[in-house]
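Practice problem: predict the structure.
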Amino acid sequence: MSKDWKQQSVFIAGLGSIGLRHLRALQALDVKNISAFDPVPASVTKALDIYPQLQIRSSYEEGLAAGPDGVFILTPPKMHIPMILQALDSGCNVFCEKPLSDTLDGTVELSHKLSCISNKLCIGLCFRYHRGIQRAKALLESGAVGRIVSIRSLMGEHFPSVRPDYKTLFSARYSGAFDLMHDLDLAIWFADQPISQIYSVYGSYSDIGIKAPDVAEILIGFADRCTATVHLDFFQRPRRRQIELICTEGCILVDFSTWDQCTLSTYRTNNEAWETETFTTDRDDMFREEDQAFLESIAGNSHTQVYGMEDAMLSLNALHQIQNR
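Answer:
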């Protein structure tokens, strides 16, 4: 008999800010058997403050050797694929934070390995678990506003305010605003069809002083009469996160600029009126949802919704096209 999902043993690799967030989520889900490794002593100390019973491993290899049911890889993107392959070779199921990688290197090898084994790989596309986004997706799929024609997505926040140590982070040196790839992923997810063309203008244009792009404007053409524009930036104030779904029989507007509330407005041409729904949310809600989905999936629940390599490759391939034109 397989274990209950709460009884799955979990090994966390990486205890930075995202690692601590997943640790809090797992603690809130009442998962008991958690171990972790991070080479930075200060990160380990912070984790133990959150979860004193956390088992600390001396290396990644030691953590894998203990035979956890699930490994959470929460490290910089360039480390993801080598660590995933190592975990799969050890017989573990893997949850990897987004993005799958910062390049396409190793993706063919990883895809081949996954086709030969039964172990699961789930990618942390957490906003697909956001209540407001899920409601918008359900409305779109119901046909309530007709066929989607245009997607307009905007995400911007002031990086120095969010992370005062921002200049020390890999995002400031490499990915920059493209680290906000959830909004690109959501545009592709809502369109639900292949990309036929993609263009972008991006660079370090503001005054926050990072080498990586602090703004990106992305234009996407999809295969069947649908377009998307995605704006990403690391300097605007106030923080804004908004998605507009413009359809043949109405519109859906989602404003989730704050973590504690989401407003969804729907206009249906047959009603000729706006309907507004407000959701009270918490930032950790979607992390708990995706972590539970992963644990349920490796416990054998075939009905839980998880997102794997195929989903992660949609935005990764798009970013590769943008950055290698």
